[in-house]
Amino acid sequence: MDVFYSAQLSVPVIQIVFLLLISTLALLYGRIKLALLINYCFTLYWGYILNMDVIRETGPSITDTFTYMYFGFGLVIVMLAAVGFIAQRE
C-alpha cells in the first residue's frame, strides 16, 4: 500500500485541457454516457500507458498478473460500451 502513497504520476496539461474540452462538448450535447466513457478512457491511458515507466520502476510487486488483468478488463469495458453505443441508435 505504501507504493500508492509514494508514487508520483505526471499528466500533461494539454491532455487535461483536451479531456475537459471533449467532456464538456459531450455533456453540452446531452451525451452523458459518452462523456463518462471518455473520462474512463483517459483514466486508463494516464494510469497505465502514459506512466508505464513509473509502474515498471516500482518493481515487480506492482506489475503482477492482477495489474494486466485489470487493464485488460478495462479495455473490454471500453469495447462493450462502444458496441452498446453503436447498437443503441435512437
Structure commentary:
The protein is mainly α. It has one domain. Helix content is 77%, strand content 0%. The chain has five helices and no strands. The chain is flat, with a radius of gyration of 16 Å. The termini are far apart.
What is the topological layout?
Layout: H1 2-6, H2 13-28, H3 32-50, H4 52-57, H5 65-87
Helix pairs in contact: 2-3, 3-5
In short:
The protein has helices at residues 2-6, 13-28, 32-50, 52-57, 65-87. It is an all-alpha fold and 90 residues long. The chain crosses the membrane at residues 12-30, 37-55, 67-87.
* Percentage of residues assigned to helices: over 70%
Query: Any idea what the radius of gyration is?
Result: 16 Å
Overall shape: it is flat
Count of strand segments? 0
Structural class: mainly alpha
Uncertain regions: pLDDT < 50 for 5+ in a row?
none
Helix and strand succession?
Answer: HHHHH
What integer is the average pLDDT? 80
> How many distinct folded domains?
1
Main sheet makeup: none
Q: How far apart lie the N and C ends?
A: 45 Å
The fraction of residues in strands falls at under 5%
Number of helices, where a helix is a run of at least 4 consecutive DSSP H or I residues:
5
